[in-house]
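# step 3/5: fold
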Amino acid sequence: MESKYAKQRIINDIKSDDLQIQVTGYVEDINGNKSFILNDDTGKIKVNLKDIILNYKEKDIVNVIGDLQITTSGEKILEANIIQDMKKLNFKYYKRLYKLKKEILEE
């Protein structure tokens, strides 16, 4: 049975069998209203915008929830369903908390 919730991931931890994920990171390399690159300091992933208008600029911190697509060449692309403003997030502490949570769940 599939979970109806997007799995919280950092880019380095994205698995090829993930279907829906959420990733928090910095906006980079905006390509109009088509796509942008999301960078969370562990890696980068292309985010396709579909019907979403990007109201953010480069270096803004956002949380993207969407469907993971993997191309035939192995490139991972996130098809955005929701983009949330995370400007008030302390990203340094977020990454620490993610790491601790991951360690606890792996025990």
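# step 4/5: annotate
The chain has one domain: 7-101.
# step 5/5: archive (pending)
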